[in-house]
Write a structure and sequence with these properties.
Order of helices and strands: HHHH
Radius of gyration: 14 Å
Distance between the termini: 28 Å
Strand content: under 5%
Helix content: 40-55%
Number of helices: 4
Largest sheet: none
């Protein structure tokens, strides 16, 4: 049987996103160390399940990062 690992970005008071799905709080807290740790965890996964809204956001975001020479080094870990 395979492991199921759930990962959710949430504040201590239960805040997930704003009324228009904004995640601005998340970007002020995200660090290069967090990106590296998440990258290492994702490398071990054989399947990643996303919700529709998250998938659509990532499908638009990540392809552009592959050719963005100004992308942060920690972003490139996920390409």
């Amino acid at each position: 049987m395979r492991k199921l690992i759930v990962s959710v970005n949430v504040t201590l008071d239960g805040f997930l996103s704003g009324p228009n799905c904004e995640l601005d709080w998340h970007f002020t807290c995200w660090t290069a160390e967090m990106a590296e740790a998440l990258s290492e965890q994702l490398k071990k996964a054989d399947t990643i399940i996303l919700g529709r809204v998250t998938y659509l956001a990532m499908a638009k975001y990540w392809p552009a990062k592959a050719t963005d020479i100004t992308a942060a080094p920690q972003d490139l870990l996920f390409i």
